[in-house]
Amino acid sequence: MRRTPETRPHYHFKPWNVGRWVLWGLFALVLAVAPLLWSSGFALTMLSQMGIAIIACLAYNILLGQGGMLSFGHAVYTGLGSFLAIHTLNMVADGRLSLPVSLVPLAGAAGGLFFAALLGYVTTKKAGTTFAMITLGIGELVWSMSLMIPEFFGGEGGISGNRVVGAPVLGISFGPQLQVYYLIAVYCFISTALMFALTRTPLGRMLNAVRDNPERVEFVGYNTQRVRYIAFMISGLFSGVAGGLAAINFELVTAEVVGAGRSGAYLLFVFLGGATFFFGPIIGAVLMVVALVLLSELTQAWLLYLGLIFVFMVMYAPGGISSLIMMNLRVAAFGKLRPLLGSYLALAGTAATILVGAGAMIEMVYHLQLNEALGPELRFMGTTLNAHGFDSWFGAVFVLVVGVGLFELARRQFTRQWGVTQEEIEREIKRREAAI
Amino acid sequence: MDQLLINVLNGVSAGLLLFMLSSGLTLIFSMMGVLNFAHASFYMLGAYFAYSLSRAVGFWPALVLAPLLVGAMGAFFERTALRRVHKFGHVPELLITFGLSFVILELVKLIWGLSSMNFPPPELLQGPAFTVMQSDAHGLGLAWGAAPADRCASTAAAVMHCSTFPATRFFMMVMALFMLVSLWLLLTRTRIGLVIQAALTHAEAVEALGHNVPRVFMLVFGSGCALAGLAGVIGGVTFVTEPSMATIVGSIIFVVVVVGGMGSLAGAFVASILIGLLQTLPLTVDKSLVHLAASLGWAVAPGDLGYPLMKITLAQAAPILPYLLLVLILIFRPKGLLGTREG
User: Which of A 70-89 lie inside 8 A of B, CB atoms?
Assistant: First the structure.
């Protein structure tokens, strides 16, 4: 090949991206220090689950955020990874296979990769809406299969294992939860770093291009289907890692892990965290574990609240929490956040009022539906409500209506203020560009 | 023979119910590009509304009122939420209907509880619609309603078999065919149908001619939801009215739409009937690959490689057959049976 001046290797000054190193250092630090700060057994199980969820959600975001592929069947790959990992663990325990427990998640990764290669070939033939429906169909297919083949999926009871097998390596037996947490943390950090690195490779960039303008990518000479297929397999690989870690963490894998509910949860929380930024799914994963463990204890209606939050998020903030953070960081970087704080306070106050009113009504209906035998009275936020009484209902409706009215006022004020601030920032940017 | 006939009829009626659902879904999809994930939730709402209404005003008024109510809710959702999200693109549109399906499911559990409802069909639809009689001597016979006992009894001269076909299923077929014909007439013979057809392909041109296309969208969405609600009323009395009824049909109707070809109404019809038969007919076949191998002279014993897969009978495998069909269609005919566009 004749070298034109453009293709000749050239050297240019490339400073260290200090901010990036600081962020990754902080991430590693949080992973390492978290179990020391919250050392109770309950906190430790939650932290372990968060680590697993972070890998799974980031893997999901390779599809949703980076590839624009909306999958309704992601649990298939985490779940099948789990099953392969637990079978591997049991083979190690039987002595049929010699493998340290710390490498068992890699068996899960191989499983995830294999099934993503097998099923993804069909799935990635299409993009967009059809892709979404096919993933739903494949998810149902695997879920129905799990009930038909008890030899592999363990039927109703699932497959159980024991992670304390073989001789301890360097004194690590994986008996205590803390050791399992650190195994998860190490896998979590490496997987996150690898998935971030993927976004910087030509493949990662092509994937973004396939998401944004597949037609143009075809004209450039790339096969969009192949790009999607490769991304799908990589996503399956990391999902398998998450599944394998889950198998070690819980020591029990039931058919539920390939179910539609799990797939839906991944979609919901990755979206809530924000699919447009790389770190969005990390927020989503933390929220997912908090919601599944804490919120479900707090109220029986948590799925309803979650669904409502999701719907409003799609309507008003389609970029998720991470985009809200980034937008406000931009405002803060231009030193214009302070005037908005009053509006934020008003929005939060009125939203809380709505939540109290609506929450009281939802809880009363749930109480009537499920705990009728306990009498009409229930505790809600420190007060006693009478689900049969007129005044409780009137009070709840009153609070709700007042909250909605005030919220609308606050929202209008905020929208105006936000628009003005954004215009000021745009003008500032233009001014700076002109100054250069 | 008589049993096979009844089974085929059962399959066709299940397929027609699927078509009532998938026709609305296809219409909405081909017009707005929106895949309504909550379509099956509107089906469920139809059943629950009809249950509550039928206790107040009786079944037949409820059969009319419940779909109208569901349609109004669908139109309201399109107007307030979906139209807002439209500018963000197709993925948020799909996501918001996904969120809606979540909310509807939880609301239904909240209002009507977790257990199944006692929603019996009205007197007219109870019992069999007709009875197929087969005798050794006289061949097949047909009687409306339940056949008299003496005609079903085996005599010394001939052995009789009687199989009945439930009236609710017959009603389901009649309603679906009625709906199919009226939908076809509406789309091809009326002015609003012409506007809808034009808006399918050339929305901007139709708008330039002075038609309110967003309102047409709202009407189409509402009517699609109303059709789902109607299917829900009939499905509710025929099957069980319970919170899981949406998930049971939900993923199947998506399979129907993909197999038939995205946006093709005729394709949805063919695929509905095909999948209805595919879900029903294998249920009666209690044979597996092991039996097939044995009849070919190859004995498979427990412990052989692949035995756990081969011992699954066709009846057990029935739930996955539609999904297998989906995979096969995607490999060999990616645009669907009658689809025209490559998506």
Answer: 70, 72
**Hey, are the CB atoms on B111 and A125 less than 8 Å from each other?**
no
Percentage of residues in chain B having pLDDT higher than 90: 10
Sign of the alpha-carbon torsion through B71, B75, B81, B82: positive
Across residues B72-83, what is the average pLDDT? Answer: 90
pTM greater than 0.80: yes
Neighbours of B334 (CB within 10 A): 16
- Residues in B closer than 8 angstroms to A132, CB to CB, are 35, 94
Per-domain boundaries in chain B? 2-121+168-250+261-283, 129-166
Burial of B124 by CB count in 10 Å (0-12 exposed, 13-18 middle, 19+ buried)?
exposed
Over residues B10-64, the pLDDT tens digits come to: 888 889 988 988 888 888 888 777 888 889 999 999 999 999 888 888 888 888 8
Query: The domain at A19-313 falls in which architecture?
Result: Orthogonal Bundle (1.10)
From-to residues of CATH 1.10.3470 in chain A: 19-313
CB contacts of A68 in chain B (<8 Å) are 91
Rounded distance, CA B252 to CA B255, Å?
5
- Give the chain B residue whose CA is nearest to the CA of A128: B91
Q: Is the pLDDT of residue A180 over 60?
A: yes
- In angstroms, the CA B262 to CA B269 distance is 12
Tokens 């609600």, residue located: B229
Report for A153-162, A275-284, B293-302, B303-312: range of highest mean pLDDT: A275-284
- pLDDT tens-place string over residues B269-316: 899 999 988 888 877 777 777 777 777 777 666 666 666 666 777 777
pLDDT above 80 for B230: yes
- Sequence-distant (6+) residues with CB within 8 A of A373 are none
Mutate to test the interface with A, among B78, B254, B262 (most CBs of A within 10 A): B254
- Between the alpha carbon of residue B43 and those of residues A260, A279, B40, B106, the distances in Å are 19, 38, 5, 15
Phi, psi values for residue B35, rounded to 5°: -90, 115
How close B234 gets to chain A, by Cα (Å)?
Answer: 25
Q: Out of B110, B111, B343, whose CB is closest to A126?
A: B343
Q: Among B26, B11, B24, which residue's Cα sits nearest to residue B337? A: B26
